[in-house]
Structures
1.
Amino acid sequence: MYAADAFGDVDTRRYARAYIPLDPFQLHAGLRTLAAWFHRVDGVIIGSGFETADFSVLDDLARKKIVGNAPEKMREIANKAWLAARLTDLGIPHPLTLTGEELIARLDRLEQVRFRYPVVAKPAYGGGGTANFYCRTEKELVRWVRKLPDFLFQDYVKGHHASVSVLLNGHAARSVCVNEQLLGLRALGAPGPFVYCGNISPFLTKFGDRLRELAEEVTHILGLVGSNGVDFVVAEDGPVVIEVNPRLQGSLDTVELSTGLNQVDVHVKAVRGELPELLAANHCYAAKAIVFAERAGEVMTDLQSVGGGIVDIPAKGRSVRPGEPIATAIGVGATRARACAEAMENVARIKASVT
């Protein structure tokens, strides 16, 4: 396995035959560097952060090495404004969503906007929730719409955050796991109310069947292949679609630990047309908790040496700034409570490593 990303975590480097560092602000240049690697490998799996990258630097032979959705498809699905309009056409429940430009036009025409406050503001592209924030009043909404016309403004839906991992082979879709999402947790130092902090798998809810049905329906209609994810809010009256991730998801760790399925393996097989006849049942709970720095500091502990349960490990001596992810804690148990307790024990070890 060869790895290319912007972090260069110790455990990534340990398991990779080669590591290629990328600048997240210079992805176009990074893809030029990676183009030669595309020709040297059997296949390329695109992860988070590349949804809006310009893949035109790749020739046709290199593009054929991509195992998963085509870059153009990823970019289309990752456009939250486009997705909201598509979901409206399909009659699939999702929050009222307007672009800043649409809102400005309505305000200039003195039209009333029937949002329910608070309103969620978010970029049209991008994941992780790092730039998302609340507009709690109409006055606040108008101010931010004028400042950020390229943003989206969306009804806030109260409920439990969830996601569904789905496999597709171009003809059929099959749900793998329903997951609980962790967003904006202060205990993990999250720098914002919508920042992605991890998952707990499985998520048991009376709407489980409906979540799976909706996830399969949406991803199939959108023409996706391989492993994809759909983010939901489970409100009192049922699930509401928030986003679609046209790639392997951040829940990979907990899904694999809970089901025993190798997500990369089933992703590759699905792209090649093969879906497992019977998916594995969840045999345990697994929790993933991303720990963020609450203050500037330096990682003073070799987190590889303190035992298992910690991944995305930074090198000893690495500086961290407030709001940056430090490492990820993992917990596994026969119950949700036990998995979360084990994860939080590892969270404490990660926090103690920074001084």
Note: Residues 336-352 form the longest helix (17 residues).
2.
Amino acid sequence: MNEMAKTDKVLHRKEAGVGYVVFNNPARHNAMSLDMWAEMGRIMEDFAKDDSLRCVVLSGAGEKAFVSGADISRFGAERSTEEAVAHYNKTTENASNALAAYPKPTIAMIRGYCIGGGLGIATCCDLRIASDNSTFAVPAAKLGLGYNYPGLKRLVDIVGPSFAKEIFYTARQFTAEEARTMGLINRVLPGAELEDYVKKYAETIARNAPLTIRAVKKVVSEVLKDESQRDMKGADEAVKTCFRSKDYIEGRDAFMEKRKPVFTGT
């Protein structure tokens, strides 16, 4: 994945403790090519090494799409042989895992189309906040595609088995309100308010105690695993780290002194 040439179709920046990833292919409704998948994985790996970041927001460029799926125009070059398909699948799997395993909070800011692989990216995030004109679908059953276990499990963990089946069986587009009802998205906002709302949400998270948040993400990730696979020792240690931290003292002092705490993650 990391050997591929970089692309300007996935942009990133860091502001106020928040990392931003922007899928920048608006001419194709931010459809994902192989190099875009590789670049997303690279960015998330870089973000994971930056202790100053406390939250990451992913979004699509323009007004029409978060990510509309795979860039079909690139299939001839990228998925024409068995070896090429295997490389494509490995690249997308690595990128998705880098996002899903990122140890800090992630938010998908969704405007417009969130289709196929775009919904897959969104389900790798912790939170999904969408504009009221967003639409969601997985058209695999219209294309004869199979969907692998990790991607389906992420969707089932969020919406449950019945809604996951409905999304796949019908292959239709669901409205933002239908998605909210399923639990697929956390919030629905008017389009004009979405960016400001998500920015404030991310910065709110960034100001909270990072060790507490990291522990919650760790414990929840273990809850979603089969019981035999759970790292209970790691989850317990993450909680204990909170109580041993300077931030725990800062949180108590700030509460008693009626001021806002300043957390350092130590």
Note: The beta strands are 10-15, 18-23, 55-60, 65-67, 106-110, 113-115, 127-131, 135-137, 174-175, 187-189.
3.
Amino acid sequence: MHDGEILLDERVIAKGLVQDDASVSIAMEEARAGLAVQLESFVANTMDYLQRERGLLLDRAGVPEIRTKLDDKPVLIVVRGYHYKDDLAVLRPYIRENRPVLIGVDGGADAILEGGYTPHLVVGDMDSVTDRALTCGAEIIVHAYRDGRAPGLERVRALGIEPVIFSATGTSEDVAMLLADDKGASVIVAVGTHNTLVDFLDKGRSGMASTWLTRLRVGDKIVDAKGVSRLYRQRISNGQLVSLLLAGLFAVAVALYATPGGQVLYHLLGARLDDLWAFVTSLVTEAPPEARGPWPDLPAAEWMS
């Protein structure tokens, strides 16, 4: 990297503006000065979205039918947003114990696959999801706009998949939340989604206003993954307790055998077990035939029947 240029084998592949502490401070001041303007724009976009999607938000009008059953089930929505990989890793115990319905929003479906799981639903306009995720067996929900455009529809059909179409203004993140809420999800855990005003403004999209309203619509069903990581603690199963107990007993037994007194104790126990085994075998071999029962003198098929 030299003078604002990135070179690869002496060939310029990218150019940028060299920053220092002073230039970063100036840029931060300018951003803070423009925050009020951005906030006013955000509020205006919020009101516009509320007017256009009043039926969807208030009456759930236009939500399509899907095959995947979400009624009274926990749902985990994964978006490739801030720290989504870390959040998904934290939720491994939750996923293992609660087995939620996994919904990947565009590239979030690939994140689910990378985590070792298989999504049940893939939602989005299909601009950042791989063919591997689209053909993993999940139900595909294509996000279409109110004017009828559905950018990902042709791509999905080209893979031999007939998707469900969900027409709505806003983002695919909103569509996934509204779908889960309408179909009766008991709780919606969100990974990588936008949930603060700073997130919405940093995104720099007017559509972020819809995400804020969608979160208000879903209400107390939605839980951010970072909140789960703070509140959730993995439960210890009975199998884990038994394994821990056996491991402790084995460690004590090995430690005891390493002492002279322990070795004498083990030899005595071994001798007593040998005497007990000899006594039991002598009872069987010395017992009269009538005491041993008729089975040894009959074919196996007869005494089993």
Note: The longest helix spans residues 260-286.
4.
Amino acid sequence: MDLLKNLTVLSLEQATVLPYLTYRLAHDGVQVIRLEHPVYGDPNRHIGENVLNEEQMNSYFLCINAGKKALTLNLAEPEGQDIFHRLIGELEIDVFTTNQLPKNYKKLGIDYETLKALKPDIIWLGVTGFGPDSNEGAYDPILQARSGLMEMTGETKEAPQVLGIPLPDMGTSEHAYGQLMKALYQREATGKGAGINLSMFESSLSWLTVPITFTASFNKKSTRRGNTHEFFCPVSVYKTSDGFVYLAVGNDRQWQSLVSQDIFKSLNTPAYEKNAGRIADVQRLNQLIEEITINHTAGDLIQLFKSITLPASKINTLAEVVADPLVARRLLFSKDERTGAKITLAPPPYMTPWLEQSNKSLSFPPRFGEHNREIYGERLGFTEDALTRMQERKII
């Protein structure tokens, strides 16, 4: 059942953290309306290549904004705030989200108390870098650096590295998704809305379960270890004759399975029989393993590892990931009715009933202010002349 398809979310969003959250909600069939400033808009509209040959629809923006509608509105103007408050009531907004700095909440008329007075059961979500008491700006790499995520990423004796994906952004989005689901459940049970403040910094810290406990409780230093694992060996990347494989031996039984194979029999020594012995000689052991794997193709090695139920994978390029049969059948798509352009989107974490019913297709990422006339005109009743005047005065 599409339990969420009758919900409407109004999101004053930009960059990644909230757009990814509302993109996830669009997978559930939620009606998502994104709000942008009528002059500046979402900066991500200008990032990446201009693949559609039109302004403010660059490639980076297209990745996580399908399935939404888009309005422009100047909340710095009293008239803009009046329109915004009408949107809350007349569209019966269920959830409002923003990643504005907290100092702007009251100034823009978007604070929880104001919206709660307009719609008592509204669910309000404010995502900030460091909490509602901080107005410090926060980009994903800054959060990675401050939270320790970057300290845990990279080679042992090299500089810390940024993660390959923006985990503070997207991880916070997932945490926000869970908080919204709890708030919706609470509203269903009690009729009460909720005000949720979510810190990207706190979200990022929550992923460091082992490092923080080990550091604070046992005074044990945790730091980056490249491709190896602190507690298990061999766990690493190994060169093959035509690429790389990642092998993860998680226990002594798996190790015995590995060294029982002819090409690895030279490693079947008492010193390596137990994980502790392998960990103690991790660097040399990994070199010995790679001296073997370099003489075989990744495909042959993966076939061998699978035959003995040993966790391993070829390290795929992104093109190979997209072509993987397990991935290809889960990809999402979006087609532009105006130009016929079609984009492929990453698979969802879960194929929702809404996506199944829509044949894994979402409406095309909205153009800047694309739905102004539909929502302000048809839903709020503004005339064409009024809309034109508001546009000229940069209200919308």
Note: The chain has a mean pLDDT of 96.
